[in-house]
Amino acid sequence: MSSVADRRNQQIWDAIENDNLKQALQLCTKRLRKGERGDYLLALKAHVLALSVSCGHNDEGFADAHALALKDPPVTDVEVLRLLQLALSNLEARGRYNTKESITKLWERAIKAKPGDEALAREWFLKTFQDRDWRNTQKAAMSLQKTYSKKREYYFWAVLSSYLLYSWPGATESEKKLFGALAYRMISKAASDVPDDPKILLSPGRAIQTPHELHLLLSVYRQQGYRPEALAILNSDNLGTRSTVAKGDWSFVRQKIELLEEQELWESEWDFCKMLLDEAFPGDSEDKTGENSTPPDAKGDDWRIWQGFLTAAWKIDTEENRKSTIDRIQSSVGQSRPSRNARLALLDYLAKIPQTGQPAQGPLDLLSACNQYFGSFATKTCCFDDIRCYVEALEPSQRKGYLEHIRQFTEQMVKDDLSDEKLRAASVAASINVLKFDYLVNLSLPTDPAPSTEVGDFVGSCVGLYKSSLTLGSELEPTDNQHGDDACILAVMGLVRLAGPLSEGRASARSRGYLLQAAALLEFLVSRSRHNFQALLLLVRLYGLLGAYTLAMETYPRLTIKQIQNDTLAHNIFSRISTLHPYQAVGINHLEKGDRDPSLGLLKALMVYEKSATQVPDLAKMALEKGSFDQVEGFLEFADKVRNSICKVMWTVERRRIARLVRTKTSSLDRPDFDHICMESLSIAFFRIADAIGAPSIYGLVAYNIGCNDLDPLPDDITDNRDYEVMINCEGSDHPRFEEYVRLGPKPTTQWARAFHSSEEFSLYLARYSSSQVPLEDRQRILQSVEHVFYELSRTLSAGDEVLNKDLTTSEKSFIEIQALLAEELTLILGAGLNLRDIVTDSLQRVVLKIDERLSSFQAAEDLVKGFQGLDIKSNGGSNSDRLLACIPDWTFLHESYMTLQTLISLSAYTKHLETTTATTVTATSGKSSKSGGGSSGIPKNATVVAKQRVESLYQAIRARASKIKNQFSESGVVGALVDGGFGRDAVGEDAGAIGEKIEELVGEAWMEGFVGRVVESWLEGLDGVLRVKVNLD
């Protein structure tokens, strides 16, 4: 049974877990007042105080923890030490305390007090390792290996910790020199202790015995530039690639090739790789025909071996070596069982080394080799990606010849397999590869864009192939993709090409019509292949482009992206989501709340970073304890990438912008201390309550709280882990990837992150002080913060349009310009002291003038409505579909609307802040308050009227535009007209009509009506979102 103290301690922990810190502190204080004493209770109280948001509590917690750290006799209980370190670490995170020295002294004094306690010393080492405190990690490791010298793991921990300290960017030059040399000497000693005779199984305790320890040796050597020594190790009998220590780990072979290349030992590399290839194809020397040759060995037939072999051959470049190289390749190609890597090596050789003669086996040229490769791998999905670069290397006329050859080859396959379903499926796979090469050669590579008729024919061929393949697949599982899915995706790629490049805006009816057709094809595809990742990913993008973001949010969960994959793939749904669909989707209630609520979805994605901050160090610790030193390095590198991820910054910005847009217009939200009484952890609970009882006011309250919490500092070294290459791509290597044609605006990079992080800092200031004065004691600190914001925003804008257009949309750039202007004006106001009248009046005039200059970017109220006055959408035939498609609320409409609303919210908060700042100003001479309009320090009541009027007119213009479009798409006959557009019935151009007919034959009119109806519902929901945003103009 647990003791009374344990049960009482558990009560405190339960209160902490329930975020009831007040109760936890009361329980601690009550026990202490009763005279109960003990290091654990005191440390627990310090931990509670460290978790508090109160600065006074933090100071008290720091004092208590610091006193315990210096207590005499020292604290030696491991549980108390852990708790004290946790409390001090939490205080360090507040940014007001420097606790690293206290933590170090805490453990050093404990170990000194109990020098024979191995568990205590080991615990200190592991804690410093998890905290990445490399200086103390090295110190603790050396202490362990000296005190417990018979334990070999501590010796290698000392090597690793010295190596990590050497590699740490924060280490000084003297530290690098000292600990780099120490790691080298220690690991070299371990290598020298390995017996020369590999038959001797027993070796000294500190000798290298495992592949992981050998990896550590190579890392230490290579990091410090000891490449010849590392190569000598891999050439040795006792530690080389074939040694008993290496245990057949193929990574050592790859490392040896890398070392040979780094030292430019081309002859040695060629000999080494040839030896491995000879072993992989042992039948070549006796039988050149390949009839009796053995299949290639899986390891020796490694593409890295072939790469090293060819790289060395190109560097050597002698007649004799060329002949030996081509003989080796051709003899491998001649195997009865074709080697994919050998054929690729032949293609690589022919593409890069000039032809010097004709071999015995016939003409040797790149075109023939491409034809042969397709003949061997035509039915494989890897065929296109394997040889696309070699097809690009052909002359234009040769590409046409290649395309004609593979068409004939595939046509013969189709003739031969009419009765066998498996053969028919193989012919479909080969036909898809032909279409991929057709796309590359005829649509992507030509300098001049392909005629729309040619692209239309290509789309028609793809749709036809997909339709014919639907009769196959009787052997497939429900989770499998259909045989012809890629043909449908290729048709979609062709339609996206017909829609035109992003630079042209895709504002025409036909462009949007093609995108609608593309989305229809993909939706039809995923109704049969529910788990086709490529189709689902592309469909998310297309729905986003069309402005049907509810459908994008419904499709995205089907990708089943898990955990850390969010860091690489979540950008497909969350990039700019606050300006596309900030509200909870109402039409997809069958999904989990986190999948239909963008704010909760972003929180879910952000939780990945919180989890990785604890899980990755734990995994690194486990790898360390198991002696997997190479994995330790991998985990540490991974942790660095995730910790500084640009997505973490982006999702934080998006979530805060959503909070401002969805906030309710309630006076309670304007309390200046609101951000001090709620925490992020409470947000989840409030969201659940709001969802359960249907209370939007709670939703808005919590959303506002998110926007008021402090921002984490921006990382100095932002990493980008987003994966843009996962999407299918058939474009030429010198052309933009296909993914770029379906992006929703420019790719946000570090510049975007820095600009909007600074903008959020400024918005935080406006949110906190829109209804209250800046305290005089905080004025200088806040002035410095706003000056920093202005500096960062100005630096972004100074990059010029050419650079900005690669990161920011036009609306985002305009928003940043306004934010920079407001920040500049506030620096003047905050630095003005008490006499604000003239400065505020002048500031408002400058702001109004600047807004007038930028109104063209947002469109004036008259222009916003005027463009729709002549639009009369009725179900009366003619060009209804084109007229509808021309005014759909696509992503550009939503993005411009929400970004403009964000701007208006900032402008409204700014004018309100000016009124608050000058409404009650205490004069320096009388000490009396002067109300607005009275006294020399106040400003006239109408000083902010012009700015407010400008905000009001633009706000009403945005609403008028959204309301007009909503009314038009709510009329009867809209679905029918758009179905006609989807089938190209009233489109201009033969290609559009022909494509529409193909699509109609595939999906049918009833299915198309259901699809279009859902798209229209999504558009109406998106327009409702724009109309729901409230800008506080009071």
TrEMBL record:
InterPro entries: NAA25_NatB_aux_su. Residues 282-302, 921-941 are annotated as: Disordered. Residues 921-931 have a biased composition (Low complexity). It comes from the Eukaryota. GO terms for cellular component: NatB complex. Pfam families: NatB_MDM20 (PF09797). Belongs to the MDM20/NAA25 family. This is Uncharacterized protein. It comes from Glutinoglossum americanum.
